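We emphasize that the prediction below concerns an isolated chain of 295 residues; any contacts that depend on oligomerization or on bound cofactors are therefore not represented. The input was used exactly as deposited, without trimming of termini.
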Amino acid sequence: MNAEPSQKPGQAPRPEFEVDLIEATAIGDVERPLTITERLVNNEAVQRLTILVTIVVIWELYARWLNNGLLFPSFGETIRTFSKDIANGVLIDRTITSLRTLAIGYALGLVLAAVLTTVAVASTAGTRVLSTLTAMFNPLPAIALLPLALIWFGLGTPSLVFVIIHSVLWAVALNTLIGFRGVPETLRMSGRNVGLKGARYVGLILIPAAFPSILAGLKIGWAFAWRTLVAAELVFGVSSRSGGIGWYIFEARNDLDTATVFSGLLAVIFIGLVVESVIFRAIEARTVNLWGMQR
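Result of the prediction step, given as a token string:
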């Protein structure tokens, strides 16, 4: 007798057996609505709020335990100082001054980054130039350029803008270049096959495909610019009668008003949270998340 195709010669056939079907109701719910508790636990806003509340509680408990307002004011005292300076307009004026300078430097940094990236994408030599410049200047702290800024531009807003541009330029240009170079070749060929060239090719193919990297560069550039601005204002932000939030902190430190120092730091943190959680989050929702490029 010939063995079956799936059976080797001399091998005993496998016994047949039957499996009883399991009642589907015993498996459990395939899909069920979440409870209110589960919705709250998995809600991102609730999670962030919980983290912030935890930090505030630890802050308040430590301040009460230390019991020294000169070294570490309580959260309540900081909030009272913050509210007072908001009400009298001092903190608002300083914040607007800083944000105006930041907007100028950030915008100019983005324009220069776009120019350098365009040159780098257009030719191999341009790529080498941008890579070399980035390797040279990206590790250089912007705050180290303050002495040159004072010599070249004097005291005031131009010097602040100069160091902000340095903070933004290299991070944005490097991330944009990496994003463009990481666009798949099949996607590039697809654009060429449908007749896309020049600006339409860049705008419809390269930029959307590289936008996650571009957005990362924008975030990094913003963080670097904001930190650099506050640090620079601590040194010479008031010299042209345009003191920003950094100088607000510096004046409070000279007066040994630690609560006001914490109030200024709280304003810096608050602005950072708003920019990250509102502006950049909205850009992500309308671009890379909508396009399905990241979760």
